[in-house]
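Possible race condition, two jobs.
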Amino acid sequence: MSRFLERLRREVILFDGAMGTMLQQAGLAAGECPELWNLERPEVVQGIHRAYLEAGAQVVETNTFGANRIKLGAYGLQGKVRELNYWGARLAREVTPEGCFVAGSISPTGRFLQPLGDLSFSEVVEIYQEQIAALIEGGVDLLCVETMMDVEETIAAVMAAHQVGPLPVAATMTFNLGQVGFRTIMGISPEAAIRRLEEVGVDLLGSNCGNGMEEMILLMRQMRPLTRSPLLAQPNAGVPRLVEGEAAYTQGPEEFARGVPELLATGVNAIGGCCGTTPAHIRRVAREMRKALGAESGRGE
């Protein structure tokens, strides 16, 4: 068993927060490829990883979210899949201390699988294999397939991960609360997602993005009775609001972290932040986790 999974069995693990939010604060322009900063501004990327680790994160995710062949193709960078993923992993690895972990971040391709789109299942598996091989070469401890909408595409990524190497695999889908309950934009329910992902051997599953802390608590309450697998929750810093034509996440660190005790009470095994969260958010989450978990064990803070 991997060191990460051993730790996951013993304690609730804290993931980092948003990478894109931090890159934008550092000057990433609209329309610019975030993953290219792994080559052009590596000191900024490593600085973000360090800030999250110093805030208390035990897992940092690589700056490789959109570094698959299809998404990079929008920037004319489809030939740099290996380079961008390898260095994304290396940059995180170099600053992550013993006892903490590096997760390789993997996103949807942005295209539909057949019959809705033109991509075959085998093509998608190959696309993810290419990215995952470079992440493993760069030294990640686990793989995080995240912000997924289509369960078939998620399965393709998980299968690719199992075929390339023996690392633990986390898979999180993005659900929104509507009239029929929580669903992805592809209509996938939490029940269906859990059933299919457990069939392909996911080590850690759950949800990221889409929801703020309040909605994530409701979702985890629904998901926990459906599975004995470890659960990962990575809410946004509130529901996005349009500010001057752009999505803005306005929930500050204190307000965001206020929901942590209730989120822990749902039975989640790992917590992190998604869009709008920063090292300040993660620092407050770490504090609330110490208080809540310390009280449970009788240690206090």
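Job #2 (started ~2 s after job #1):
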Amino acid sequence: MAVLPVTPDQVATVWEQVLLKVRDRLTSSQAFDTWFRPIVAREFGPQSVDLEVPNAFFVDWIHEHHLHLLRQAFTDVLGDCPDIRFSAREPLPLPVTPREAVAPPPPVVPAAPAPSVTDPRLRGWLESQLHPRLTFESFVVGASNRFTHAAAMAVSQRPGDVYNPLFIYGESGLGKTHILHAVGHEVKRLNPDARVFYVSAERFTNEIIWAIQHGQTAAFRSRYRNADVLLVDDVQFLAGKESTQEEFFHTFNALRDAHKQIVVTADKAPKDIAGMEERLISRFNQGLVADTQQPDLETRIAILRARADEDPGNVRLADDVVLMIADRVRGNVRELEGCLVRLMAVASLTHREVTQELANEVLAQYVRPEAEHHQPDRILAAVSERFGVRPETLVGKRRTQAIALPRQVAMYLMRHLTELSLVEIGACFGGRDHSTVIHACRQIAEKIQRDEAFRDKVNGLFSTVAS
């Protein structure tokens, strides 16, 4: 089977498709973020692809653990697997300060020849391992992450002075990694000489293992303990690894005692990470603990708009398509962006316009159907009984206040207790459109906030339907 041709302007889109396939097959999101996210696709030729990785250690690790997976992903996307060629960037040595002069040099992993780097911004990125796209400017702020965003901004503007450490937790795919990189970029923008290091907990573990095996622990410690800002992703990966936690504990203390900033992320609050030493949990709780939650509908729409604007293909998304994706993909930001990338890749590679029909096709493959938790009829019956109206009146066309309020409550309950989309909920009420459902949910949410008696009534309905 021949490999599908890929033009230069399609390289980024096709590579995102390959990454989606890889991520779907990997059991660990940490492994994906550590070993595949840093890869940059440089060129897709007729017989081979050129991929750039941070260093030769990546090449060895991928060849040993993930090469078969990568080949499968290319086959799925292109129809066959081309010859995969890796080029490694040589990590740049850190500037030597008087404090570092007596320490051994940092470990250098043998690497393939790398191009010379003259752009200071590129040097800073290679040194810090910051992703160039993950900045505060590209981060979409909504109700679910506004507090965390504000805390991260404060930390990046006054590193070491406020909220140290900053501990950010939340489910996978909600933007924690983006926030980490954004802090690093902002610190470097305000102080280009700042030593900023981003590292996943998995990579931290692998590096300390490598350092021990090669007698380079002093150099390892010098590198991390002389940082101005240390950004550690998915710290829960350290759970159960006693020696790595020991090393991280002393690194943490050295940085904090020197008033250097530490920002870490995890999938749980500190107290809920099983296998994490109590002394580390205590230190995490000494600073500010902030959580990120699933984005609401408006935020998901804004994320889709922002992500579409970044696409080099400049594909315009109609409002109905954006709403359809935002309404159907509710899990997390990563799933939301992944669905959009898939949609735009399909449109580009098949030369089709992005329509609701095409979006439906992609969503059918991308979004796993989930069973409804509660039947709409049960919700209608409970609301009708509580408000003293007939179920058929709720779904009818009357718009008096006596009917409009319970109808909005029923829509609100369906939105929260079922997996029905906005369009499907509207269909339950005589074919009303999605905007009516959005308005109803917003009205009820606001009334719940200001009216305690009404809040108790709605909570009672939740209990009745859920029982």
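Strands lie at 40-44, 48-53, 83-88, 166-169, 196-200, 229-233, 261-266, 288-291.
Logs attached separately.
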